[in-house]
Amino acid sequence: MTMTANKIALSERYTALFHANRARLDEGSSNLINRMRDIAIKRFEKVGIPGFKNEDYKYTNLERVFDQDYRHILEYEKVDIDLNEAFRCDVPQLDTHVVLLVNGWYYAKNQPLQNLPKGVVVGSLQEVANEQPELVQDYLNRQAGLSEDPIVALNTALAKDGFFLYVPDHVVLEKPIQVINLMRAEDAVFATQRNLIVVGKNSQAKVIFCDHTLSARDFLTNNVTEVFVGEDAVADVYTVQNQDNQANSINSSFFKQGANSNLLTSVATLHGGLIRNNLKVEFAGEHAEANVYGMSFTDKKQHVDNFTNIEHAYPNCLSNQVYKNVLDEDSVGAFTGRIHVVRDAQKTNAFQRNNNVLLTDSAKMNTKPQLIIDADDVKCSHGATVGQIDEEALFYLRARGIGESDARMMLMNAFAHEVVQNIRVEPLRDRIDELVEKRLRGELARCHSCDMS
Amino acid sequence: MEEQDKILHEVTSQEYKFGFVSDYEMDTIPKGLSEDVIRMISAKKNEPEFMLEFRLEAYRKWLKMPMPDWAYLKIPPIDFQDIIYYAAPKKKPQYESLDEVDPELIETFNKLGIPLEEQKVLAGVAVDAVIDSVSVKTTFKETLAEKGIIFCAFSEAVQEHPDLVKKYLGSAVPTSDNFFAALNSAVFSDGSFCYIPKGVRCPMELSTYFRINAAGTGQFERTLIVAEDDSYVSYLEGCTAPMRDENQLHAAIVEIIALDRAEVKYSTVQNWYPGNKEGKGGVYNFVTKRGICRGESSKISWTQVETGSAITWKYPSCILMGDNSVGEFNSVAVTNNYQQADTGTKMIHIGKNTKSTIISKGISAGKSDNSYRGLVKVLPGAVNSRNFSQCDSLLLGSTCGAHTFPYIEVGNKSSVVEHEATTSKIGEDQIFYCNQRGISTEDAIGMIVNGYAKEVLNKLPMEFAVEAQKLLQISLEGSVG
């Protein structure tokens, strides 16, 4: 396939950026991070920024968001205000350890976390990789490094910092860790963030990511998160995306699950520009279970694309996916869900569902569920629908004296609740329900101040 | 388990029963493809200028196209210069009755079971038999002509109805549509042409039987069906090929144009030689089939039973242009041994209140791979459109694969699109239930598979349904792993 002239120029801009700043990239970072850069940039060069001819990016053209004059943040920049002050938690019952990241970097004035169980490490990836490399080396890039995605490779080439969590074996981290990703700048900014989460054997942890913007500028975030869930471990990873509509982000999450482990991950997209969420789950042992949920509410010119890939490499595992989207105005949604059951991964149960509601004639939804099944003793299914709110259900409510707009609201809330109800942190569940309702009523601010934390 | 292995062995060692070679003289041209070859084909067929232009335009576009690689298929490289692009039975028959036909040919038809002869009149099927891409005999022509129906070889239509051909050729599948469509447009040698005039309901099933016979040849036939306002036709297509160690290429095009309130039903039983059980030989079947519901309330339905071919690459599609038009796709695709199939449909909703239904049943056994790939696209103007898709896959044995790749694109708020897919194997409880009632495992599997495919088989015209059912049994009975 020949690359278009523009695409070559665009991709070259990013490789040139890499080569011009090679020394700055390495500076301050552990060799663990630096040694991956050369291979990664080569991998990126091979494909370049994916255009719509790339099957995996068929419904999301990244050239548009990459083709801007961004300032690349290659080292930590001091923040002139106290971000801890800028945030007031308005859900007091949500008792979490709060960690702030700004423009992809671990915020220097994060308050130290109190009462963490022994051995639990929370901090900056750059710092931990320098100071405790033994916690990082067996995990970093072990999943992302296998990805063919050029955007993931670009992250590996450019990444310097991000969030790090380590939970040793046999430890239950009761309190969720809340990671608040902030974008704040006075100019157009490109940020690269690299997160690593390790949950040891027979341990438990919950992480909540909240993506926010503090200023309305053109932002592009290239975010990669690798999560390792040990044998018999239980991990929850929630993401709430509520950014300004000028903020674009590509989030690639990789989950590797040991035998008997249990994963719940859920992403809620409320506001934002172009958002692409890549998610990969790979089982590394039998009897593991993955529950993957997502929902989005879009309007204006928003573009949300969820791309999932569940790799059933071992027998007796279960995966369950539910993605729901409500599209208003001129927004565009996309969903691609791939379930791959490899040969001899018998007794696999894999289910997937994608339901979408279009509210206007100018909104557009593209969905591409896929099953690739190479074993016979399996139960796999997928279902996808694109439609409207059920007129009969609406009639039922109106016949009982509920006004039309209220009735619609109730039905949409119920539609979304099927995803929300799976959240295993109760205050968070209630809060997201509330946010969804606010979002549907059009009352939710396009996050300059935070609604979530 | 032992019994199952035995049954599996029996099934996989089934001989391909259509694998004979008929020994009649062929008129072939040298191997290879170039503008000269295309001119030669066109000259041999004594075609008017517009046909040559059509071919050359397609050829020039084809030269610039890469071979598609997006399907879930492993296609060995094909040397397009190593293929004979024209092969015709030498004594091109211009017969008045069957008595004059080359007895060798009659013998072939008898082996195929084509109802060409008088005794088959009762079957009530008009047949156009195409051997190595050249139409040799069309039956019932006079009966049809009374009603104004034109049913003849494509080359004959070019000579006798050039206006119709010129008007509709390439209107559903343009020359630049895809790699294989362009190749076919450049070199197609013959095929069938069918024209149903306004208000006419075709009194019998029309049928084309395709057969590749000569070695080293590719088959490139082209079917064009035009249904005028308020007309109806049901069309059948069957195909077989001799057993050969080499792979043979078959790249066909079927175009259907349905005008106001017309209905076209197109049924296929595809049984090209699938290769032997080691996966050697077999036909590469790369087919472009597309129908346009151009008129309002028109309807096109595709029904296919795919049991043959080493590689199948085929997506019969409907473009629903007219308001209230309807598209249907019903498919049973069976793969065994080393067969690969990537098949499905496209439903493009353009007109208002358009409806489409997709039922796809995939059955894979042996070491085969069977994929469904489909697109449902609802354009913003196609308000109140409706689609329902169901794709089920049945896996027989642990070494085969079943895959589903649907694409759904919806651009307005009043349309409803539903898709569901399941993958499973025959339940042990189902087999046990049958065994318990004195039904052997082999029969039980036959019953279950036939029941599974029944939804689609029921859509086939009677004559075909029987054949299809038999084919299913031959391909699969008992092959549980």
UniProtKB/TrEMBL annotation, chain A:
Lineage of the organism: Bacteria, Pseudomonadati, Bacteroidota, Bacteroidia, Marinilabiliales
Name of the protein described by the UniProt record: Fe-S cluster assembly protein SufD
A Pfam family reported for this protein in Swiss-Prot or TrEMBL: SUFBD_core
Span of domain SUF system FeS cluster assembly SufBD core: 188-415
InterPro entries: Fe-S_cluster_assembly_SufBD, SUF_FeS_clus_asmbl_SufBD_core, SUF_FeS_clus_asmbl_SufBD_sf, SUF_FeS_clus_asmbl_SufD, SufBD_N
Domain SUF system FeS cluster assembly SufBD N-terminal: 11-179
Entry similarity comment: Belongs to the iron-sulfur cluster assembly SufBD family.
GO biological process terms held by the UniProt record: iron-sulfur cluster assembly
From TrEMBL, chain B:
Coiled-coil boundaries: none
Pfam families: SUFBD_core, SufBD_N
Domain of life: Bacteria
Domain SUF system FeS cluster assembly SufBD core span(s) in chain numbering: 210-451
GO BP, sorted A to Z: iron-sulfur cluster assembly
Residue stretches making up the SUF system FeS cluster assembly SufBD N-terminal domain: 136-202
Family: Belongs to the iron-sulfur cluster assembly SufBD family.
Cross-referenced PANTHER family: FES CLUSTER ASSEMBLY PROTEIN SUF (PTHR30508), UPF0051 PROTEIN ABCI8, CHLOROPLASTIC-RELATED (PTHR30508:SF1)
Name the UniProt record assigns to this protein: Fe-S cluster assembly protein SufB
Species this protein is from: Sunxiuqinia elliptica
